[in-house]
Amino acid sequence: SGEDGSPAWLRYAPPPHASSHSSLPSSIITLNSTRGSPLSTVQQELYRGIQGIFGKTLSQGNPPNQHGTIIVGTAQAYQKSYGEFDEAKKIEEDGYFLSSEGNQVLILGQNERGALYGAFDYLSRLAQGKLDAISYVSNPHAPIRWTNEWDNMDGSIERGYAGPSIFFENGFVTNNVTRVAEYARLLASIRINGMIVNNVNANATLLSPRNINGLGRLADAMRPYGVQLGISLNFASPQTFGGLGTFDPLDPAVDAWWANITNQIYARVPDMAGYLVKANSEGQPGPLTYNRTLADGANMFARAAKPHGGIIMFRAFVYDNHINESNWKADRANAAVEFFQDLDGKFDDNVVQIKYGPIDFQVREPASPLFSTLRDTSTAIELQVTQEYLGQQTHLVRPLGGLAGVVNVGTNMTWLGSHLAMSNLYAYGLLAWDPALGAEEMLQDWIRLTFGHNKKVIETITDMLIKSWPTYENYTGNLGIQTLTDILYTHFGPNPATMDNNGWGQWTRADKFSIGMDRTVKNGTGNAGQYCPEVANVYENIETTPDKLLLWFHHVNYTYRLKSGKTVIQHFYDSHYNGAATAQDSVKQWSSLEGRIDNERFEDVLLRQKFQAGHALVWRDSINQFYYNLSEIKDDAGRVGDH
Ligand code: GCW
Q1: Dihedral angle computed from the Cα positions of residues 601, 607, 610 and 615, in that order, rounded to the nearest 10 degrees
Q2: How far apart are CA 146 and CA 190, in angstroms?
Q3: pLDDT (tens digit, 9 = 90+) per residue, 282-299?
């Protein structure tokens, strides 16, 4: 659609009492800016922001004037014109120094991108009415802060819930890149510096000359915002697309093919971030076909990208989806460590991208044991912002975390298909920058920027969002049994029966008497033993395993008593009633905001909350009835049973 996207948290709306701030700077000096560079974006953004927030037009000020000036640029350029300053030494790559005392403002980046982040930070403070004097250096926690988009060449998006792609249509890169630039702007404001634009289940036709040129168009649209483009590759491309007889990573002809195609891409996108590769997973081709290791496969791409400074993200999400449940020791959660442990230190300039949980973006999982297994390999954490297993953006659920985030933006004007889901993207970016940020503080910044300063609005939305994850966990899968959603067809709605009796390995092993995966070393799949000893002991031992992960690590009777004193089955029943009740309350909470936010967004969110409330009842009753039918154990409160 040609429609603009919602401004999300970049509304630049006036905070209360905006007009009384006469002490704002009235001019701007931009050091060393070239056209189309992040620094020229900084300048535009400051004009636009100060205009929107205060109705004031900045003038070009050189030299600095007594009415106050914003000086923005790289720290290096500043020092050339104005002399050294102490903080300069502390600014790291992509970082910035921000100082604002009344009408004198300095925004100095280590590079241009850093200056852009500093400007967005400054504007965010102004829009929130935070006008106190400040002076600090802000540096990123990690250099790679990317999003992964799962867009297909035909314009559909795998696990996308916000309409078709903004990047591709009908097999080609789209011509109109307006929304791409707007999206890059949003990402820059939360300090994301790279974006993989196509699905990890990759299509080799992306590498055609026409599409490489298209990728150039996308990169050109993103560059002013400091967001570098990257792509996912299909491992078999040399054969399926290049016409070679093989895609063996140790065959010199294959090597030469990748080097050549990589040179072509870099000729059009000289600052390309790099490649993302899903190999030997869920039917995707990979090096194992030729009895080569995963490291052999990854290193082939590293060789091709090295001359250009590109980064290879190689996914650790490798597992066999035809495992046999009748084998008590079979366990998909063991796969990543089994595939990668002997390869530690054998990856050239690659980063192994590890999903947070050992299975797959479930509502509750322990962290993957691979993080502590790989000691001599760079690793990145992969998180899911798109709510594949968490209600597909129709349910309100807010995760926390940082580094490669699967976002799946679409043409929908809300970007993710839900106004409130944008809090997840906002938090993802800022946590990738600083994982120590407090959830509530970040959330309230986001609410002020998105919905304004009304106290009741802030308090209500904070409460709704902070509760949303435990609420969803309550009415879906409890105690670490995974989400219990339909895993075979839709990934939506309750379907606990689909978890078992198939090769996908997301098993619950529920029978008439008992439930849970025995992942102990002494009697089960041995998965607990993949953790470092301190953690392994906690999970191996049922007494020390926290209730929330009990059924992830142990197989117990429904009548087993939790630390809370409840039985497992009663906990299921109660949690489902509690979670579904909270979902009903959310509708009332949101309704109480009528008139306090604009009608369009009010109605849009209300509709979703109502849908979620209804669907939470469906979840509650299907899950409770399923386990009642299986166990025939009555609910103490008499709610579940034969009717
Ligand atoms: O969770 C699964 C998803 C697939 C996805 C896969 C992956 C892109 O259901 O849709 O494929 O993970 O992360 O590779």
Answers
A1: -120
A2: 11
A3: 999 999 999 999 999 999
- Complex ipTM value: 0.98
For the stretch 185-203, pLDDT in tens is 999 999 999 999 999 999 9
Same domain for 130 and 206? no
Q: Is residue 457 part of a domain?
A: no
Q: Looking at the 3D structure of the chain, how many domains does it have?
A: 3
Q: What's the full length of the chain, in residues?
A: 643
Q: Cα–Cα distances in Å, from 10 out to 238, 311, 556?
A: 43, 30, 50
- List the Cα angle 35/36/41 in 5-degree steps: 100
Choose one of 415, 437, 459: the last residue of a domain: 437
Token digits of residue 241? 């697309």
64-96 in b/e form (b: 16+ CB < 10 A) is eeeebbbbbbbbebbeeeeeeeebbeebeebbb
Residue to mutate, 388, 485, 490, 504, ligand 1, most ligand atoms under 8 Å from C-beta: 388
Residues with CB under 6 A from ligand 1: 150, 158-159, 199-201, 278, 282, 317, 360-361, 388
Q: In what order do the strands lie in the sheet with 134-138?
A: 59-60, 27-30, 69-74, 104-109, 96-101, 134-138
Q: Of 569, 36, 544, 18, whose CA–CA distance to 271 is shortest?
A: 36
Q: How far is the CA of 271 from the centre of ligand 1 (A)?
A: 28
Residue 423 belongs to domain spanning: 146-437
**3-class SS string, 312-336:** EEEECCCCCCCCCCCCCCCCHHHHH
